[in-house]
Design a protein that fits this description.
Distance between the termini: 93 Å
Radius of gyration: 28 Å
CATH class of the largest domain: Alpha Beta
Largest sheet: 13 strands, mixed
Strand content: 25-35%
CATH topology of the largest domain: Purple Acid Phosphatase, chain A, domain 2
Number of domains: 3
Shape: globular
CATH architecture of the largest domain: 4-Layer Sandwich
Number of helices: 12
Number of strands: 22
Low-confidence stretches: none
Length: about 500
């Protein structure tokens, strides 16, 4: 092979190695399981090996350009194999990890990726650029300048203008409704309405200061919103500084009449374990008087978009902001670097609470994580023993309420009942009159009666996404203490499962 062709081959192999190792920087987060099966750090060892191979290729290309010298064929073959392996591994990680998680992987590597990219650029400028021809240098400078200018313009003037990203959704919390919506730029959010002849404008605030955020959660008293119309609004934040700042354009939207769930003979739509699945949520409009989101909205909460795209947007599209929703945390909603941000932005207060719809008393439980705290998946971040003990203490503080009592929990078998320590959760729920738990987690639909339940309380599993191709959802009709439960496929509406359950009534 001619030296020129060999140099081109070197350059192409180097480009392949650079791109694949940059991709690997993000995709490696998907494969903690590989580390566990082989040895801890195996994926990072591969990543380091691929980076060293890339550095070696930089030196090889420099030698080829400077002196026309090339590494011996066996050495280059090893370089090429490693470069190809890094590409194949990155593609495999992307496919198995899921294309839907691509942006999450990039986000997870945001701190490290610029350093690796900058290191490669430095190597290029020091080792390769000075030896390039005049024309090649001109092309590189032109493309680099164009890319830099484009990046700067997009950063200063993001495309798309200022708009609402997520339609409003109204969530039931412990003491009020929370109206939640999102914008595509940082803004201060507000809700306005009229109640008993008085105009109200409530802002998204923290201790008296309006929040500058893309996600807004605004608490409104139950009686103010029931059977009332309202508007949402946001004013763009250009700068938020200690001694000043600049606010920009205001956008508003009329939502319409909010209708509370009927106190008798109502239907709850249950969605669970969507795990980031991009369902056609509009198909679920009108299928319930209230919507229960039963957890695992995403594989993990990597960033704001993880809960905006998979909880707030679906809730807004299904309810149109005119029906109440309930959010129950799943175990995957406990995972990821943006979990704290999610809880702060949603601002629901507690994620285990009680609410009523007519004669029906619902207890919302946060069943936390599904494995022991020392499991390799958690990397030392979990401490749920105290968390579960506090939840049991809260349950013990509740008094039995007359009427029908139901528990909503992501894991209907109450994860921590099987952690080697006997918790009181199931017994306390029974004392409070609960004889069914509505949940998900098991990625199927099934009714399990009291006799076959591991906790001694009947439960129903409401569905999930199936292979990222379809969604199974459930409707529950509440009528005079009897639950008529049915699960369906979203794609064609076909029935998957059906069950009936009679509730116990607690009397004075």
């Amino acid at each position: 092979m001619e030296k020129k062709n060999r140099t081109v081959l070197y350059a192409l192999t180097l480009a392949l190695s650079v791109l694949s190792t940059l991709a690997f920087t993000g995709f490696r987060f998907a494969f903690i399981f590989v580390d566990n099966e082989v040895f801890n750090g195996f994926v990072y060892l591969l990543w380091g090996l691929f980076i060293l191979n890339t550095i070696h290729l930089f030196w090889g290309l420099r030698a080829a350009l400077a002196k026309g010298e090339h590494y011996k064929k066996p050495v280059f073959i090893i370089n090429a194999i490693l470069a190809f392996l890094s590409l194949v591994t990155s593609i495999a990680f992307l496919i198995i990890g899921g294309k839907a998680e691509f942006l999450n992987y990039i986000h997870m590597s945001a701190e490290l990726l610029p350093y690796l990219g900058g290191f490669y650029l430095l190597l290029f400028l020091l080792l390769v650029f000075p030896l390039m021809g005049k024309f090649s240098k001109s092309v590189f400078v032109a493309l680099g300048g164009f890319g830099l200018l484009t990046t700067l313009l997009v950063f200063l003037f993001p495309p798309g203008g200022f708009a609402f990203k997520a339609e409003p959704a109204v969530f039931i919390t412990e003491d009020s409704y929370a109206i939640v919506f999102a914008t595509n730029r940082k803004s201060v959010g507000f809700v306005s309405y009229e109640f008993e002849g008085q105009e109200y404008t409530l802002h998204d605030t923290t201790k008296g200061r309006k929040d500058s955020s893309t996600v807004h959660s605004i608490k409104v008293p139950f009686e103010h919103l029931d059977n009332n119309s309202y508007r949402i609004g946001a004013r763009r934040v250009w700068e938020d500084t200690a001694y000043g700042g600049h606010l920009g354009k205001t956008i508003e939207k009329a939502v319409g009449m909010f209708t509370p769930c009927p106190s008798e003979d109502f239907t709850a739509l249950c969605v669970t374990d969507n795990h980031g699945f991009k369902a056609d949520w509009v198909k679920l409009q009108g299928k319930g008087d209230t919507v229960f989101f039963l957890g695992d909205v995403a594989n993990a909460i990597y960033r704001y978009e993880s809960f905006v795209d998979n909880l707030i947007i679906p809730a807004g599209l299904i309810s149109l902001g005119q029906k109440p929703s309930v959010y129950v945390r799943g175990n995957h909603d406990h995972r990821g670097p943006a979990v704290r941000a999610m809880l702060e932005e949603l601002d629901f207060g507690s994620y285990n609470f009680r609410f009523e719809i007519g004669d029906y008393n619902f207890i919302v439980l946060d069943t936390g994580e599904d494995k022991d705290d020392d499991n390799f998946e958690y990397a030392g971040f979990n401490d749920y023993l105290g968390f579960f003990a506090e939840q049991d203490e809260w349950l013990l503080s509740l008094e039995p309420k007359t009427g029908y009592n139901i528990a909503l929990a992501h894991c209907p078998t109450l994860f921590h009942e099987h952690k080697g320590q006997k918790w009181q959760t199931a017994e306390i729920l029974e004392d409070l009159g609960v004889n069914i738990v509505i949940g998900g987690d098991f990625h199927q639909t099934e009714y399990v009666d009291k006799e076959n339940s591991s906790t001694g309380i009947a439960y129903y599993i409401c569905g999930c996404q199936k292979g990222m191709k379809d969604l199974w959802y459930t409707t529950i009709n509440f009528k005079k203490g009897v639950l008529d439960i049915a699960s369906f496929m979203l794609s064609d509406g076909s029935e998957v499962n059906r069950a009936k359950h009679e509730l116990n009534r607690v009397t004075e």
